[in-house]
Amino acid sequence: MPTDHSPTHARDLQRFNQLKALIIKRRAFEAAHPYPPYCLYKTDFNFTDVHGNSLLHYAAALGDMDKLRECLKNNIDIDRKNNLSQQAIHLALENGHLAVAQKLFMENADCSDVHLSQCQRNPEQTAWFKEAIEQWLKAAFPSAKNYRTPRCTGQFFKQKGEIHPVSLTRVAETGNTSFLKSAIRQHALPPDVVNHLLVVAAANGQLHTVKYLLEEARAISAPGGTTALIEAVKNGHGPVVDYLLSQNVAINQQDSLKNTALSYAITRHDKGTAKRLLALGATCQHENLIGNSLLHLAVKSGCPFLSDLLGLPGFADRRHHRNMYGFTPFDLAVQHQRDEWLPLLAEGQDLTAIKQSAAYGHPPVPIHQAAVLDNMLYRLKLNYRDTRYFDHDGHCHGFSFLHSLYADREDYYFATLRLMSHWNGSEDDLFKPLNPALPQAAWYKNLDELFEQWTNDLLWFQHTQLRTIDSLRQTDRQNQFDLIKGSSQENSQYLPLYVEPEHNRDEQGKPVNYARGEAELLEILSYMTRMPSGIHFEFIGGGHTTSAYNKKPHSLAYYDSNFTFKLQGNTHAQAVIRKRLDWVEGAGTQARYLITAFCFQKDVNELKLSTFTVFDEQEFPKSAAEAMQFQQHSANQFTPLHIAVMTRSLPAIKRLLCDGFCDIHARDRSGRSALKMALDSHFYDALGLFLTSPDIPLDELSGFIRQAYRTNEKDILQAALAHPKARQLIGLLLEAIQKEDLPLIQRLLSQAKIDVNQSVSDTLPLIEALQTGHEGIIQTFFNHGASLFITCGYAKTPLKTAFLSHSRCMDVVIARLNGNLHRLDATGMAAIHHAAEQANALALRKLISAGADVRQVTAGGKSVFQLLGDSSWGIHDQRECYRLLIGQYQFDLSTESDRQILQQLLVKLALSYDEHVYQLLLRQCRPEIIDGLRIHGQPFLHYLIRNRCLAPLASLLAHGVQVDPLSEDGNTPLMALIQATTLPNRHKIIAMFIDFGAEVTLKNNQGKCALLLMQQSTDDHIRQIAEDARSESPLRMG
């Protein structure tokens, strides 16, 4: 490999050696410190430097095969991308290192983002890469029939959900016109796909394909994105340029950066193409996205025919034109040391003085978010820190808020970004003391401390990756700021003035539609810029957040974290909206935008919002017809009332409500009324004014009125109570019940005439009152006709609530029932049923004493015992209830239902045995009923033994039940006990059965009797029982 002495080669070699030395140093350190955090983030060959480059990137850029092999041997990630989204194979191709590119390709490098246009450094590598693409296409897409579904995946295809099929894009790239013809003929491809293919073919110099697409497939260079002519000029494909110009294609169309074909002819130093474009009428007066004129582009790129351009009409006048960052072409010539052009641009200035200036040869430090974030992320990795909370899609939301936070020290903000962006990745530089002359030195000792604070703040106010830490939404600025502000920042409290909640719904429950185009955004911002100086705005939409600061009325300091440098000066609403739309990728004519206006507490007094009027006298509508006409002509369908609320103009709201010309129920394009807008923005002063309107539905203001009640704003409460629709204040009534505010409850029921039986939020006022246990409140509701028997859904009634286990209001409710204890509520249950269902023994005792009938069944036919048995309460709570109910319940054994209840109780209470309760039950149960009881085909005694429930057996035998009922296999209970070798205390139970006269000679189906089973037992104790039985009761042996 020939020696390369270029500065770039020397730089890359130095960076390779520095990075390798750093990796070796870190690995040695980690070996000596094998504990967290060092063992958690071990360093290997994939460690990258501040530019995001790995050793493999530098080896590829250098074309050094030995270094490349060393990297591959150490399992380096071959597809890792650097900060510019470049893989190693990109760098190899762009630097003309074919052997390195081929080696990486053979190692299966991902080539889905590698294109022929990146191979133009070397014709040989262009031919090689084209052949590689064609071989893959032939294998994956043998015909155009299934151009969307590859037969095989590979290095050139990674499924990313592309709008444009990868097969057709690669075919256009390589110039396979026959495949394209077949695909277009068979599938009738839509125009946007065909137009895209024209651009791809032009970018790669495929003249034959360009001709076919333009002449036969009728492709056009559609506006937006880029054009075939631009791509052909940009990539230096002269024949394609000549052909396109011969076809009279549009020459002044712009790409997404607002550059034209002439722009790229100048930056490529293509004088011939530039002359042809100018001769054909190419404009030389336009500006691109950042405001650069063609003269800016010529100077920055070092265009050799700049002097010829200056001779063009009007071109020389652009010498004084500033781009959006405030730089003239002369400034760029100074920054980039374009000495040959300085005499042409300096206009008599002292060239020696210019070359001695601080700006000479020193381009400004970029401060866009990518430059800052790359350094922030690298510092964390360098210090073995967790990087999970970095959002790889950007931190515009965090930068936006920090810009607002430092608005009164805007120069400080941008200077801090420059400090972080300018860091070269050196650990030593992180800990050098800051220059005392820097304002940052008053807050931070060194760059590391500055990085730490600003990284934390940025992650916090971005807040997209912090959902595992807290529950705050990304747009919840107020709580984000309140949680972390210091005691010295109390006067910096975040105060929202206008808010558009992210997942908002209108008054009818439909999602609010925030889709807006240029006209809608311009109208909103035009009125907002009338607000007093000191207001901040945020624009969230299209996956990007930007902000603006109202330095003075109608003048905005606009900020976008993607801007390379600070925007020069202030601007107006129209320019802000235009920049917003131009710079946000994917923001079409109608994109979803959220807009927020806010200020900080320290600025409130100077704002004087309480006296701000958004409209001039002549702008106020003089009739309802004028107000309606205003809304019809509004891009957002705003009424004047919407605008007054949006701009926080209290005097305007007063005037408009007083005049009465605006329809307070009118909806804007998003579906919101002015009232809903005020509610979303917590504009309480305006909501207080809305209360004076008799047409306002108070249920929509429920949250606001309840908040006024909590903060004891008596004037708001008085206005609400005096409102003609005060009956809608049920939400306030519920709040008053929770606070046990009896005077307000009485006023709401007496003065506002609220319907006490109205259901709201799945509850009833009486249910809430009963839960307080406040006798005075409960009695007040009874006095106003509150019913115990209605439901609010979910099987909830006040009657049920009254007899919950923790209820404190049973006495007052029983007194209210006053002999009506048997009445069923909406769920079909009486008071005693609810008490039984809740296993509330105290309530049962009180109800029984008051005369409740324990035999009453529900509307569904359930008895109190069934309700008690089905309850979720534990047996401890149920036992006392069973004792009470069994003691009161007179079973009628002549009825099937009572016999069934009795048998069910025998089983249930046996399994949860309490001797006192069971004896109460047995008193009402004849032995023959128990003898006839069979569970799953088994006699009751057998069922108890099989379920190891032995405690009730003594009571049952003493009650006189049959001692020898036979099971299906002919066994008696005694036989079952003898054979159940794992039963506890079975010796006593066996002896008890023998004492109660159990037969020991009766044979089962196997011909064995109890005596024989005992004699054959391996249990000595049981064999002894058998001997004792023989000697003590010879008659029993038969």
Question: Your description of this structure?
Answer:
InterPro entries: Ankyrin_rpt, Ankyrin_rpt-contain_sf. This is Ankyrin repeat domain-containing protein. The chain is mainly α. It starts with 6 loop residues before the first helix and ends in a 6-residue tail after the last helix. Among the domains are: 612-688, Ankyrin repeat-containing domain (Serine Threonine Protein Phosphatase 5, Tetratricopeptide repeat), CATH 1.25.40; 963-1037. Mean pLDDT is 89; it is low at 1033-1038. It contains 54 helices and eight strands. The strands form two sheets. Strands 1, 2, 3, 4, 5 and 6 form a six-stranded antiparallel β-sheet that branches. Strands 7-8 form a two-stranded antiparallel sheet.
List the helices and strands and how they pair.
Layout: H1 7-32, H2 55-62, H3 65-73, H4 88-94, H5 98-106, H6 123-140, H7 166-174, H8 177-187, H9 191-203, H10 207-215, H11 228-234, H12 238-246, H13 261-267, H14 271-279, H15 294-301, H16 306-310, H17 329-335, H18 342-346, H19 351-355, H20 369-382, H21 396-405, H22 410-422, H23 427-430, H24 447-462, H25 477-484, E1 494-498, E2 515-516, H26 518-528, E3 536-541, E4 544-552, E5 555-559, H27 573-583, E6 591-600, H28 604-607, H29 624-633, H30 640-646, H31 650-659, H32 674-680, H33 684-690, H34 702-710, H35 714-722, H36 730-738, H37 742-750, H38 765-772, H39 775-783, H40 798-802, H41 810-817, H42 831-837, H43 841-850, H44 864-870, H45 875-888, H46 896-911, H47 915-923, H48 927-931, E7 934-935, E8 938-939, H49 940-946, H50 953-958, H51 973-979, H52 986-995, H53 1010-1015, H54 1020-1032
Antiparallel strand pairs: 1-6, 2-6, 3-4, 3-6, 4-5, 7-8
Helix pairs in contact: 1-2, 2-3, 2-4, 4-5, 6-7, 7-9, 9-10, 9-11, 11-12, 11-13, 13-14, 13-15, 15-17, 20-22, 21-24, 26-27, 30-31, 30-32, 31-33, 34-36, 36-38, 37-39, 38-39, 42-43, 42-44, 43-45, 44-45, 45-47, 46-47, 51-52, 52-54
